[in-house]
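tool_call: predict_structure(chain=1)
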Amino acid sequence: MTDEEIIKHFQNDDSSKELALNALIKAYQKKLYWHIRRMVADHEDADDILQQVFIKVWRKLGNFRGDSGLYTWLYRVATNESITFLNKEKKRRTASLTDEEGNLSNKLKADRHFDADKAEWKLQMAIQSLPDKQKAVFTLRYYDELPYDDISRILDTSVGALKASYHHAAKKVAAFLKKD
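tool_result:
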């Protein structure tokens, strides 16, 4: 099923809505999961956020205006949900920055998908040290290889600001990697 067909089924409110949602999940679940996972680091948190994304999509897709592509809208929902989660986590924790970095480090070390001796783990630690907006820009550009125009629509930010944000994020990641 194409994106256009999925949207059509949701907007017509016909009985194939569930089939359309299953097609949408099949097409985008893995990409969205890894985008969210790179933002929040933890598998369980990423799974929870992904569920929230698809719940929100289920509720809102019937009103999709088509101002952007479906994948752009999905990434925007996933990014916003991830940032909301990260902000709630920061508010919930009253720990110092050192404790927060230690918490992230412990989450990554406990994750069976990451090996602390490998470059990927170090890169993930560097990404997790970025501010949320820079983390979103970096992961969308570096991992998902999205063009700045698409990222601009996802994050509702100008292309120039995105390029600057990505540049600063890349410098911070490189500095983090050099210090280790």
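agent: The radius of gyration is 17 Å. Proceeding to next step.
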